[in-house]
Amino acid sequence: MDWLFADGVAPFSLALMLMFGLGIIEIISLVLGFSFSTHHGLPDLHHPDVHVDLDASHSVLGWLQIGRAPLLILLILFLLGFGLSGVILQHFAAQFLGGFSHAGVIAVPSTIIGLYHMNIGGRLVHKYLPKDETQSISKNSFIGQTVTITTGHAQLGQPAEAKFQDQFGQMHYVMVEPDEADYSFNEGSTALIIRQDGEIYRVVPNIDYLLAKTRSQQ
């Protein structure tokens, strides 16, 4: 099994090791009664200095199931698809070409496979997450909900993951973005959903935030 850590294969083996590690952490956290994926953030989805087409960005986020399933689970799905496909492709390369291909060459199809695995797996996670179909609210009812930022820093052009619990006790995860450039929300802060824009929900500060800001200015 030493070939799994050869130069051309090591990046994919490490991806699988990271996937197993994150999976174990998530399982342990669920046993303890909370989800690690909702308490520890991943890197911001967009750097604030990078200007992108927001409609295209939201479309990509939706296809990747970001906002429909916890980000850590999506990362695990990507690492599994990327790592496993890379190892398999390098195995075939060694069998038919007499040696391993350059890791950068194999990384291209492996990344594509990983993203598709993230899309398909994310759909299944979103579909089969435990919930009571007779006691759930529609996405139209998300408007007016107070959410807590769980991952990232939300500012205009830079969505972040947030969550809220509905009146039936069901937890919802959404991608939120401030409705105005004057607002920004750090991890752990709360905001109010006022409208939906594709896969993104626009938010503004809630009353607690405004009261605290008013007191600080007095």
Question: Would you mind describing this structure in some detail?
Answer:
It is a single chain. The chain has helices at 10-31, 54-63, 71-97, 103-128, 207-217; strands at 146-151, 154-155, 160-165, 171-178, 184-185, 190-197, 200-204. By secondary structure, it is α+β, with helices and mostly antiparallel strands. Helix 1 packs antiparallel against helix 3 (71-97) and helix 3 (71-97) runs antiparallel to helix 4. The chain is elongated, with a radius of gyration of 20 Å.
Radius of gyration, Cα only, in angstroms? Answer: 20 Å
Distance between the termini: 67 Å
- What ranges have pLDDT less than 50 throughout 5 or more consecutive residues? 39-57, 132-136
Shape: elongated
What proportion of the residues is helical, as a percent range?
40-55%
Largest sheet, in brief, is:
5 strands, mixed, barrel
Assign the structural class, choosing from mainly alpha, mainly beta, alpha/beta, alpha+beta, or little secondary structure. Answer: alpha+beta
User: What fraction strand?
Assistant: 15-25%
| String of helices and strands | HHHHEEEEEEEH
Mean pLDDT: 78
Domain count, please report it.
2
Strand order of the largest sheet: 1-3-4-7-6
Please count the beta strands (DSSP E, at least 2 residues each).
Answer: 7
Helix tally equals 5
